[in-house]
Design brief:
The protein is mainly beta. The chain contains 1 helix and 9 strands, in the order E-E-E-H-E-E-E-E-E-E. The strands form 3 sheets. It has a 3-stranded antiparallel sheet. Strands 4-5-8 form a 3-stranded antiparallel sheet.
């Protein structure tokens, strides 16, 4: 029957945060020779190609193929941003004191299977007492799928004030631009 045709909700841009699909292959005698159910996802405004590799059946023996999709969790593109942000991590974080500023350097690692951006990287500095001292931000245009990008956030310090910044309390906040 071809099955699996499901309409996305009426919205600007959607994706499926999760869906189940079933692939069934039937030979010339009408016998089901392969049946697998799997789970996948579709990023907003993208298409998903499903490939089932390594099936131990001769192609010439297949008479019918049925694919169906079920339990589709449609999400607006804006909701996917939270999912994407969860798969961006910070590595190699370091703080350097230069003149009247602290430079926060690091590397963002994109563990998503698609490029993300633009994104804002915020650095929030705290002193040894846990008091917030200052914050600043920088913009990263894009990070390729499974790629990385270095960043530097220049955070000015209060003039004439002797403050010891606690590098362990430094917070990095990543926000993907919600176009």
């Amino acid at each position: 029957d071809g099955g699996g045709a499901r309409e996305a909700p009426a919205a600007s841009v959607v994706g499926a945060a999760r869906f189940e699909y079933q692939v069934t292959l039937i030979d010339q005698t009408g016998k089901e020779v392969f049946n697998k159910t799997r789970v996948s996802f579709i990023y907003p405004a993208k298409r998903r190609t499903i490939v089932e590799a390594g099936i131990p059946i001769l192609f010439s023996a297949i008479d019918q193929a049925r694919i169906s999709a079920d339990r589709i969790d449609w999400r607006l593109a804006e909701e996917f941003i939270d999912i994407l942000e969860e798969k961006i991590r910070v590595e190699k974080l370091s703080l350097t004191h230069e003149r009247a500023e602290i430079i926060v350097n690091g590397t963002l690692i994109n563990e998503n299977s698609l490029s993300v951006g633009p994104m804002i990287v915020k650095a929030v500095l705290f002193d040894k007492a846990g008091e917030r001292q200052n914050a600043s931000l920088t913009l990263i245009n894009e990070i390729a799928a499974f790629g990385q990008a270095d960043f530097a956030v220049h955070v000015p310090l209060a003039a004439g004030k002797k403050t010891v910044i606690d590098s362990e309390r430094t917070k990095i906040i990543i926000e993907i631009n919600r176009r």
